[in-house]
Amino acid sequence: MSDKTMTAQEVVSRLHSGMTLGIGGWGSRRKPMALVRALLRSDVTDVTIVSYGGPDVGMLAAAGRVRKLVTAFVTLDSIPLEPHYRAARERGAFALMEIDEAMFMWGLHAAANRLPFLPVRAGIGSDVMRVNPGLRTVTSPYDDGETFVAMPALRLDAALVHVNRADRQGNGQYLGPDPYFDDLFCAAADTAYVSCERIVDTAELTKEAAPQSLLIKRHTVTGVVEAPNGAHFTSCAPDYGRDEAFQKTYATTPWPQFAARFLGGDEQAYRSAVREGS
Amino acid sequence: MTEGTGTPLLPPTRAEYCVIACAEAWRDAGEILASPMGVIPSLGARLARLTFAPDLLLTDGEAMLVRPDGTVEGWLPYRQHLALVTGGRRHVMMGASQIDRFGNQNISCIGDWERPKRQLLGVRGAPVNTLNNPTSYWIPRHSRRVFVEKVDMVCGVGHDHAGGARYHRIPRVVSDLGVFDFATPDRTMRLASLHPGVTLEQVGEATAFALTVPDAVPPTREPTAEELRLIREVLDPQSTRAGEVGT
């Protein structure tokens, strides 16, 4: 069986400008931030981001890397409005496909199932249809005759997710209360990169946790990155909670200043800067 | 109205009338999930659960279904929550940055969507909520900026946009001034009750559209002594409710 371990930099070297990238987690929860930081150090740009948005979107938007965003919201959770995303939207910095949370989930399901669309009730009657003129409806062929949104598949060139544990082959495990949608992101993507807090032997995965915590299956995974604290400053329960103080620094510091102070060097430099800053 | 010590209870505050008005949204709801967003709706849902709606399901705000004492009784991660919404066995009370006379709600952005004057949260789950399960709204500061003639972006679907959708229902809107519903022939907003101390003029001045006002507007009902005890001593002894609406 192949050893899929690689560095965050190796992951990013496989990504190209113009790609459609799915980013796992939810809001400011278990985001693959070490991979996002590696992306920010690269010259990959002009990307389409598909994300239940948090600081991943805020940072990439602030850095001018986003051509188009597909999302239902962007939030820092404890700080409801993501300031960098917000500023980017208000200056019209990128195109937006704004859809409902459930439409987003069914779009990933459609992609994972190799279907062109799935019918969803959500969206009908709302301005989601007005701001996405490309969305089509589909009518039930059965007696009910109900009209649904034909939610198109959200097929991804690459998915980036972060979990608590993984083995070298790409079996990924979450240990917190919510899997979010990370398995779907991987299944909807041509290539998927899983960063984790710790790489362990396969047998370790089920030693202390139940097998249903094995969220991501290796056949959907291209690369595995060991990235301790790799979701920082978002939460990664039960390994750590959100770094609220640092998130506040992120939200209140002008972007060029934040980027210069925390993102100028590698991941090691980031960690030192965070330690010095708090 | 006295407690064991003989001390008279302080009269209900505005925040407490709001808690009661929110709780009433879940009366006789049966065995469904109550999804309150905001401090006052959360207190309302838990009050309903402890009194007249004992079969309600509640979450911890994350992935667990919990009983009022915090005992976990189930698991509801986001993916299952979204499936539960489409199953319809849920009544959500959302916030609104704007709401109009037909009950259209906006939490996405203010101004032109292409390049908004003020970017807000995004549509979130408002479209799926309003097409699938009863959706009520809580507005802590009733003003003309919120109660607008026309919302800038329809996130939650109102009656003029629903086209008779099968599961569309907006039972009530609760604000710091009163309770509102859509029990009018054209399904536009109607004043259902005024919180004690609020005048008709105040509501009229704070609403940017023509509201239907019945000849006799009842006051929002009084909390019982037991409800006041639960709110003050059990559910919210730190009085976080006062921070959301003032007094």
Features:
A: alpha/beta, nine-stranded mixed β-sheet, three-stranded antiparallel β-sheet, 31% helix, globular, B: 247 residues, Glutaconate Coenzyme A-transferase, six-stranded mixed β-sheet, two-stranded antiparallel sheet, 8 helices, 12 strands, 26% helix, 17% strand, CoA-transferase activity (chain A), NagB/RpiA_transferase-like (chain A), CoA-transferase (chain A), CoA_trans_fam_I (chain A), transferase (chain A)
CATH class value of chain B:
Alpha Beta
Number of structural units classed as domains of chain A = 1
Name of the level-1 CATH class of chain A: Alpha Beta
CATH superfamily of chain B: Glutaconate Coenzyme A-transferase
Approximately what portion of the residues of chain B adopt beta-strand conformation?
A: 15-25%
Q: Write the CATH fold name of chain A.
A: Glutaconate Coenzyme A-transferase
What is the mean predicted local confidence, pLDDT of chain A?
A: 97
The percent of residues in helical segments of chain A reads: 25-40%
Q: What does this protein structure show overall?
A:
The complex is a heterodimer of chains A (278) and B (247). Chain A is of the alpha/beta class and 278 residues long. Chain A has 11 helices and 12 strands. In chain A, strands 1, 2, 3, 4, 8, 9, 10, 11 and 12 form a 9-stranded mixed beta sheet that branches. In chain A, strands 5-7-6 form a 3-stranded antiparallel beta sheet. In chain A, helix 3 (55-62) crosses helix 4 (83-90). The longest helix of chain A has 12 residues, at 101-112. By secondary structure, chain B is of the alpha/beta class. Chain B has a 6-stranded mixed beta sheet, with helices on both faces. Chain B is globular. In chain B, helix 3 (78-87) runs parallel beside helix 4 (126-132). At the A-B interface, helix 4, helix 5 and helix 6 of A face helix 3, strand 8 and helix 4 of B. Chain B: This is CoA-transferase. Chain B: It comes from Streptomyces curacoi. Chain B: It holds the Pfam family CoA_trans. Chain B: Keywords: Transferase.
